[in-house]
Structure formats: C-alpha cells, structure tokens
Amino acid sequence: MANKAKFQAIKGTRDLLPPETELWNRVEQTAREVFGTFGFGEIRPPIFEPTELFARSIGLDTDVVSKEMYSFEDRDDTSLSLRPEATASVCRAYIEHNLHALAQPVKLYYMGPMFRRERPQKGRYRQFYQIGAEVLEALQQGQADSAKSTGKDAAVDAEVIEMVMAFFAKLELEGVQLEINSIGCRECRPKYVEVLRKALIEVKDKLGPDSQRRIDTNPLRVLDSKLESEQELIATLPRIGDYLCETCAKQYAEVKRQLAVREVAYKENWRLVRGLDYYMRTTFEITARGLGSQNAVCGGGRYDGLVEILGGLPTKGIGFAIGEDRLILSLQEAGKGDAAKGRDVYIAWMGEKAQDTGIRAARALRQAGFRVELPPAEQKFGKALGQADKIGARYALILGDDELASGQWTLKTLADGSQQKLTVAQLLEFLKQNCSSPLQG
Ligand code: HAM
To answer: Cα(354) to centroid of ligand 1, in Å?
Structure first.
C-alpha cells in the first residue's frame, strides 16, 4: 500500500478544540456585551481585500506590509491579500457605505482571524485572532482642529481605552498594564523625527543593523527596539513629549486627565510608537501576565486622516485590537480557562424502555438549556458512570427498572457520589438551582 502522508495544520496555524473553544466563546460573548453597553455595533468585513488597501493604510515600509502579508494574484491579475488587521477594512467600509451620513461618531467592533507571516512562537501565530473596535467621525464642513475639538477627541480616546479596560476587568484578566503616549501630528511629528534622525546619525556606530537601516526608513521605530545593547543609548535620545505642538500637548494632557476621572490606571511610555504608519497623537498598548516576550495583548491609537488617504472625506478615527490568542493564553495561565467544561447530565440508562424514557428526558433537559449526554447504546452502570466521569459530567441520571416503575429517578452527584430520588419536576428544579449552563438565563 502506498505510504499515505498525514496532513498537518500549516506552520503558525492551529486547530482550536473543545473544551478550549468554550473559553473563546465566553470571551467573545463578553466582548459583545461590554462593547454593546458602550453603544458599539458589529461589523464583519471580508477576510481578503485588495493589497493596495493595506499598503496605503499601514504603510509600505512597515514590517506588516513589506514582509508579512499573504498576497496572491487573482485570476484577473489584481493583487489580493489576506487581511493582516482590520482597521483598513473598517475605513474602506465606512467610505463604501457612506457611513459619514449616519449619526456621528460611528462605533464598530469586529472579531475574527488575521494573517501575518511572522516567526511563530508562544503567543505569535500566522493565523491569529483579533477583537477590535473603531470609532469614526466625519468632520463637519469647515471644522478644523480647534481647541474644542481636541477636548472632544480626548474624551473619545479615553472612553475607548476605558472600554477595553472594562472588558479585561470583566474577564478578570490578571496583571493588566496600560501604557500610553502621544506621537504628535502632521505638524509636529516630522520636526521631531528630524531631531531624532540627527541624534541617531551621531550614534549610528553603536546601533545594530536593524536600527541603522531604520535611521533612513523610519527613525521612530528605533525606539521600539528590544535589543539589549541599544537600551542605554535609546534612553538618552530626544523625547517626543518635548516636541509636541500646542494642540497635541493639550489633547494628551486631557486624555490623561480623563483617564484619571474614569479611574483607569496608566503608565506613560514615550517610546511607544506602534508599528503601523496610520497613527497620530494618542497611542496605547496593554500587556497582561503569563505571556512571555509576546505580552502585548492589545494595541491601538488615533488615526485621523486615514479615511481621507483611502479616498473618503476628512474623518477622525481611534481604535484598538486585542490579540485574542494572547488574551486566552493569559486567562488559561491564571487558571480561568476551565470553568465551563463537560456536561451537566449524563443519562445512564438500562433496558429498552429506559432508553425511550432517556430520549424523552434528554429532550426535556436540553430544551431547558442543560448540556446532556445520552449514550446511544446500553451500558452497564459501572461503565456508564466511568464514561460520565471521563467527559466531565456533573450529574448522572440513572434510569433502570426501579426508576421506571416508581417514576422517581436517581440523580447521582459525581463529585461526591451522593444520590437522591427525584420526580421529573423536582429534577428540573434541582438542576436549575445547581447548574450554570451557558444557555441558562
Ligand atoms: P497591532 O498592534 O498590529 O494593531 O495588533 C494588535 C494586537 O494583535 C497585538 O497587540 C497582539 O496582541 C495581536 N497580534 C498581532 N500580531 C499577532 C500575531 N502574529 N499572533 C498573535 N497575536 C498577534 C493592529 O492590528 C491595529 N489594527 C489596532 C488598531 C485598531 N489600531 C487602531 N484601530
């Protein structure tokens, strides 16, 4: 017989299996609930888009666009790419569906797979999942960046950050640390970048090859460097905070004030520049416990002007994306992953009549929202109880001759082996009191 090679999931991709997927579902459900309380609605953009959309939004010199996208030629010779992130798609959709004509701002959230060809490691995959949100607001005609509007923008920034933090708090994510920065605007940032470039040229010899290259392509990214040998030197470089224009400085101060009012704890990090080109002013990142080197569980920031770059009207934007894989990892490491395993009830039946009763009992219990396992073939009680234990059932409902004759069913609690006799009505009532199935309201 020919040797049949087994297939494996492609490097950097993986199958998510039960019971872990229950945690994924719980996380996603919680996101929907929390984001809903902040007035966000869901958008589901496509998984692939024109390559040009990402190139123009994220920037040609970024790692994501220059080396990490999965791109392919479609049959009509257009270049398409699997989405490496979703902010660009949300802006495209905002333009395409004239969302500027709706009440502003438009608040959208999304969740789903993203694709980047990075080197896989713990917390870093080639297909990974993000839960993100964006707030978009078309500028009224003639509306400029006035002092008043920066106050308003700061409130939007702070609320978006408050929302992610509320979501993490609801999940009881541990060791959450928020870092914020302002990277200035079209007016002040270029001036700072020049100052930084000059300073970097002076110390060029002491930098590694990546940072040396970035002096030309994108000096801000040098600040991102994790290279041990560069840290001391980077600490001495000029800081953007000293070069912000008046409007940017005002807005940053107001973001910090509003975070304090919202009781959101933060740390300032002047080196937080983010890896995508569309950002301006507020940027932020959140780390959590148990993740090793890939510990950023959320990244985001303001991107006024991106919609315009993509052919839309002048529009303000701010958003974030959470790395769901990392969020799940952190929850698992903290032992918060296995709350909803197994079944509520395993029906251990014996005899043909008992099977019929079991089928009806299973239907009634499932309709009431309980997770029920009904074995398709008769088993000896000992084996049935062993099976119930293996799949993590909480209770075994025992249906044999005695139970059928008396109408009193036996319910065994698997954790301690105790048993009780119950009528159908009593059984339903007891389970309602004692199970917290996902479907239970
Ligand atoms: P990002 O920082 O590139 O931002 O990604 C956000 C988060 O996605 C990261 O903090 C990380 O948790 C997760 N992530 C990124 N790459 C991977 C990977 N290869 N494996 C696992 N997780 C990963 C954005 O994508 C922006 N679109 C966020 C945003 C929205 N800014 C404004 N609006």
So the answer is: 54
Q: What is the C-alpha separation between 335 and 174, in angstroms, rounded?
A: 11
Identity at 235, one-letter amino acid code: A
**265 and 171 Cβ atoms separated by less than 8 Å:** no
CA angle (313 as vertex; 307, 317 as ends), nearest 5: 40
Cα gap 107→104, rounded to integer Å: 8
What's the rounded Cα separation, in Å, for the pair 26 and 331? 12
Question: Does residue 298 contact residue 287 with C-beta atoms inside 8 Å?
Answer: no
| DSSP-derived 3-state class of residue 45 | coil
The rounded distance, in Å, linking the Cα atoms of 400 and 405 is: 9
Which region, left, alpha or beta, applies to residue 134 given φ > 0 means left and ψ of -120 to 50 means alpha? beta
Each residue's pLDDT tens digit, 381-413 = 899 999 999 999 999 999 999 999 999 999 999
Q: What is the token pair recorded at 407?
A: 């109408």
As a whole number of angstroms, the distance between CA 46 and CA 200 comes to 41
| Longest Cα separation, the chain | 92
Could you give the CA distance from residue 173 to residue 5 in angstroms, rounded to a whole number? 41
pTM recorded for the entire structure: 0.91
Residues 6+ apart with CB under 8 A from 49: 80, 81, 83, 88, 89, 92
Task: Note whether 271 and 310 are within 8 A (CB).
Answer: no
Tens-place pLDDT, residues 250-293: 999 999 999 999 999 999 999 999 888 899 999 999 999 999 88
* Per-residue pLDDT tens over the stretch 18-77: 889 999 999 999 999 999 999 999 999 999 999 999 999 999 988 999 999 999 999 999
Select from 85, 156, 164, 289 the residue to mutate for testing ligand 1; criterion: most ligand atoms less than 8 Å from CB. Answer: 85
Ligand 1 contact via 84 beta carbon (within 6 Å):
no
The three-state secondary structure class of 311 is coil
Percent of the chain surpassing pLDDT 90: 86
State the distance from the centre of ligand 1 to the C-alpha of 278, rounded, in angstroms: 14
Cβ proximity of 358 and 374 under 8 Å: yes
